[in-house]
Amino acid sequence: MSEHLISIRDIQVNYGNIQALKGISIDVPEGEICCLIGANGAGKTTLLKAIVGLEPLVAGSIEFDGQLIASSEKRKSLATNEIVSRGIGLVPEGRRVFADLTVEENLEMGAFLIRDEARIREKKSEMFELFPILEKRRRQKAASLSGGEQQMLAIGRALMSSPRVLLLDEPGLGLAPLIIKHIFDIIARVNREEKVTVFLVEQNARMALSASTKGYVMETGTIVLADEARLLLENPRVRGAYLGE
Ligand code: ATP
After folding, report:
1. How many CB atoms lie within 10 A of CB 33?
2. How many whole angstroms from 39 Cα to the centroid of ligand 1?
3. Where is the ABC transporter domain (predicted)?
4. Number of H helices and number of E strands within the chain?
5. CB 3.0-4.6 Å disulfide test: which of 67, 95, 181, 191 passes with 150?
6. pLDDT digits (tens, 9 = 90+) for 145-201
7. What phi and psi, each to the nearest 5 degrees, are found at residue 92?
8. Is residue 49 part of a domain?
9. CA Rg, the chain, in Å?
10. Which of 13, 18, 216 to mutate to test the pocket of ligand 1 (most atoms within 8 A of CB)?
11. Within a domain: residue 142?
12. Which domain holds residue 232?
């Protein structure tokens, strides 16, 4: 077992002529909550897509638990379903739940790797315990849920496959402060009780850094700061640019 569950080394990702990630390195410590903060367009979503094999690397490599999962050498990179089955769960930006499916069906979609029906039922009841509101709404279409409930469903769906690490893309986006707090409390609980490592990217720097042990700051495709999260909260550059002080 490696100390860092995810190790990203000097990765570069391009969209045509645009360098979206300009050679960045990040280590996500096992068992902890680690965050990446940055403004709109900094490259945060691109980074998460690269980790799950949805954007090819022009340079660099990504290891998960000491094993290569993505590389600029295409033949050494794994397909997304293989990456997910190794234990990486992604909660995409904008809580992309299946709007026309019920809450329960959405959760079942997250269990596509599980063959055992009893195990799927067990995972579903774990999710209903974690998110009681989802149990109440289990037969409702996902489209009828509030934004916060959809975010809970997106997290629950990712947890159905019992990932070792949860990647979250702006879990607080567009939600009211009280709902954001509730979502972050649940993320902390999943990390603490289920021992799931968390890597979250956020524009809401205060919320993300307060929940994390370690943080990175990204500006236009480059990591400009990396430190213990509590120190970043006190860092004058972070306070000025990201905490509105
Ligand atoms: P947001 O908060 O808006 O999600 P982000 O930090 O996640 O921002 P990315 O979505 O990763 O940023 O975008 C990084 C850069 O790459 C931006 O300049 C964006 O316009 C560009 N970009 C993203 N996706 C594509 C694409 N499919 N084709 C071309 N350019 C893209």
Report:
1. 26
2. 11
3. 6-245
4. 10, 10
5. 95
6. 999 999 999 999 999 999 999 999 999 998 999 999 999 999 999 999 989 999 999
7. -70, 160
8. yes
9. 18
10. 18
11. no
12. 4-97+161-241
Residues 6+ away with beta carbon under 8 Å from 79:
53
Q: Considering its fold, how many domains does the chain have in total? A: 1
As a whole number of angstroms, the distance between CA 233 and CA 132 comes to 33
Residue range 24-66, pLDDT digits in tens: 999 999 999 999 999 888 999 999 999 999 999 999 999 999 9
25 C-alpha to ligand 1 centroid (Å): 18
What's 48's domain CATH number?
Answer: 3.40.50.300
The reply to whether 88 falls in a domain is yes
Residue nearest to atom 31 of ligand 1 (CA): 15
Task: List all residues 6 or more positions away from 192 whose beta carbon is below 8 Å from its beta carbon.
Answer: none
ipTM (interface pTM): 0.92
Q: Is residue 108 part of a domain?
A: no
CA of residue 177 relative to chain centroid, distance: 20
Q: How far is the CA of 18 from the centre of ligand 1 (A)?
A: 10
0.90 exceeded by pTM: yes
To the nearest 10°, the Cα dihedral for 140, 146, 152, 153? 30
Q: What is the DSSP letter of 77?
A: P
Instruction: Among 44, 49, 220, say which to mutate for ligand 1: greatest number of ligand atoms within 8 Å of CB.
Output: 44
Measure the CA–CA gap between 164 and 36, rounded to whole angstroms. 18
Closest CA to 94 of 9, 5, 211, 175: 175
